[in-house]
């Protein structure tokens, strides 16, 4: 596929960080190219717990008041992370209310954990102070007796140790892949060239400044060389891999951490309720509603961004079920109740002495390491992606003047056109019309069936992972995609294999 050869900025990686960077850069007037080797949002951004966290996690276990007093720099860093989380939460919820949904989160308080209710209340008060006038946390405190009256809370581990339950509102992205896609398409509307299935094989410094990028177009196998004054490496967990493959000797900046979630159907009293707690080993554990199901996790462990980092292993699934049973001994749940699972490798900022990396979200300007105009982003999160995009555009603007005049950054959710006469395809409470499928296939750079099922429409994240409608979807767009009957069958088989391998769900496609 032909591509212009000269840009001011090349953004590599079409996850949430790269998409947001491209959106901000293109809106600021920079001539921008966004290159993603697979589909947009198919990396870690498509494997998260989908939370717009309020930042409570930055103030909780391992981060006791003593820990904070002993490590004041860490305390300041975590307060800043919590402040940014709260502020970005408010901004996102206010700017894009249709892309998030409020969820009532419950945090059980146990005597043995040594967090008395007053301390928990203080933590929430602090969060609110970090974002005065922001979106409310709707903080509530239930005593142990009051909690025992609520059916879903009765299943909690107690043993007479429960001192109460904290309840507050978190927001859940519905759904992150589409938020990423929307940012990519807004960038395209502002003039950016956006390419999925375009892998950057190498980056080399150009003799008179700027960078040459070798780009392999995975649709036709052609290799192109393009030039960019600045490069933004937003490849997340692959950031160091790309630097090394290019022969650039730069410091290691990333540490991968694999996280896993499993989806189950919980009893009706759990409907719409979420839980956040700390396991006996000190790790966080979340139980989060998703349509008619719940998912729980994440059981983080250091990992490279290999394909194995993007599928749940059997032992972790079994361990997660055990985790659940330790928190809810009153709810019978076994491995057989797991409907599907997913895993991803978090891109964490590397830090000496921290084998799991750290939570800092950083833009590394590699000019100091002898690579001017080469930026690497680490620790990027869904919940702070707009801030990341804005800071990347700001850093680039310190080196370059935009080629065109700027315009406001667009965040609005791109709703698919509705046509009441078009037949709907429905599965597990999710419905998309044939006209919408055809619109997406025509206008949103779809190559494979899973691009459409998981990242352009929500069909893939339905209860049966879209296996029941995959064939009908492929047929509905076959003429636009140029798929013959045989190619439709190949795409459906590919989809089935992907869902079985990456999500552990095997069902016959209808
Ligand atoms: C289990 C789990 C739960 C999580 N929960 C949350 C949560 O609740 N809230 C939250 O905010 N965050 C959460 N996260 C973290 C969040 O999902 C990630 O930090 C974020 O998605 C990272 O985005 P990214 O754009 O930096 O990376 P990615 O989404 O991985 O994007 C990087 C992209 O670069 C591409 N790429 C790599 N190499 C090349 C190359 N050579 N050429 C072109 N493209 C390339 C990849 O294909 C990939 O698409 C969670 C993560 C996990 C694993």
UniProtKB/TrEMBL annotation:
Domain FAD dependent oxidoreductase stretches: 9-379
Organism superkingdom: Bacteria
Cofactor(s) of this protein: FAD
Record keywords: FAD, Flavoprotein, Glycerol metabolism, Oxidoreductase
Family as reported in the entry's similarity comment: Belongs to the FAD-dependent glycerol-3-phosphate dehydrogenase family.
Annotated PANTHER family: ANAEROBIC GLYCEROL-3-PHOSPHATE DEHYDROGENASE SUBUNIT A, GLYCEROL-3-PHOSPHATE DEHYDROGENASE
Every Alpha-glycerophosphate oxidase C-terminal domain range: 428-487
Pfam family, one: DAO
Chain segments annotated as coiled-coil in the UniProt record: none
Signal peptide interval: none
Entry protein name: FAD-dependent oxidoreductase
InterPro entries xref list: DAO_C, DAO_C_sf, FAD-dep_OxRdtase, FAD/NAD-bd_sf, G3P_DH_FAD-dep
């Amino acid at each position: 596929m032909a591509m212009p050869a000269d840009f001011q900025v090349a953004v590599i990686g079409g996850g949430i960080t790269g998409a947001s960077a491209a959106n901000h850069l293109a809106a600021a007037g920079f001539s921008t190219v966004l290159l993603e080797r697979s589909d947009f949002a198919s990396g870690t951004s498509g494997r998260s717990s989908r939370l717009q966290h309020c930042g409570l996690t930055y103030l909780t276990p391992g981060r006791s008041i003593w820990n904070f007093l002993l490590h004041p720099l860490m305390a300041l860093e975590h307060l800043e992370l919590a402040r940014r989380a709260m502020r970005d939460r408010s901004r996102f919820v206010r700017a894009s209310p249709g892309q998030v949904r409020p969820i009532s989160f419950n945090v059980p308080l146990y005597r043995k954990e040594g967090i008395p209710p007053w301390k928990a209340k203080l933590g929430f008060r602090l969060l609110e102070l970090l974002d005065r006038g922001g979106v409310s946390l709707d903080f509530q405190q239930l005593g142990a007796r009051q909690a025992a009256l609520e059916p879903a809370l009765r299943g909690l581990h107690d043993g007479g140790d429960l001192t109460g339950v904290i309840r507050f509102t978190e927001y859940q992205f519905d759904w992150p892949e589409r938020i990423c896609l929307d940012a990519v398409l807004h960038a395209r509307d502002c003039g950016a060239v956006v390419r999925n299935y375009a892998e950057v094989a190498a980056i080399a410094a150009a003799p008179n400044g700027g960078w040459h990028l070798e780009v392999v177009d995975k649709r036709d196998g052609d290799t192109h060389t393009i030039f960019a004054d600045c490069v933004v490496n937003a490849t997340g967990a692959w950031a160091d891999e790309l630097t090394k493959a290019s022969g650039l000797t730069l410091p290691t900046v990333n540490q991968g951490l694999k996280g896993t979630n499993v989806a189950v159907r919980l009893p009706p009293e759990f409907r719409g309720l979420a839980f956040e707690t700390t396991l006996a080993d000190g790790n966080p554990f979340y139980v989060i509603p998703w349509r008619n199901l719940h998912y729980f996790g994440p059981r983080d462990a250091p990992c490279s961004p290999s394909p194995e980092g993007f599928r749940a292993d059997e032992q972790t699934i079994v361990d997660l079920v055990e985790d659940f049973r330790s928190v809810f001994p009153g709810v019978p749940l076994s491995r057989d109740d797991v409907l599907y699972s997913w895993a991803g490798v978090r891109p964490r900022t590397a830090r000496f002495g921290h084998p799991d990396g750290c939570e800092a979200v950083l833009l590394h300007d590699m000019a100091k390491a002898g690579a001017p105009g080469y930026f690497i982003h680490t620790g990027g999160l869904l919940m702070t992606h707009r801030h990341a995009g804005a800071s990347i555009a700001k850093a680039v603007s310190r080196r370059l003047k935009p080629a065109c005049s700027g315009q406001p950054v667009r965040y609005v959710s791109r709703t698919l056109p509705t046509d009441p006469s078009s037949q709907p395809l429905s599965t597990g409470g999710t419905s998309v019309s044939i006209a919408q499928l055809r619109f997406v296939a025509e206008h949103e750079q779809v190559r494979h069936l899973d691009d459409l099922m998981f990242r352009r429409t929500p069909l893939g994240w339905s209860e049966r992972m879209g296996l029941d409608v995959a064939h009908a979807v492929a047929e509905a767009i076959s003429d636009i995609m140029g798929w013959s009957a045989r190619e439709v069958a190949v795409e459906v088989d590919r989809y089935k294999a992907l869902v079985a391998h990456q999500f552990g769900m095997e069902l016959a496609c209808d």
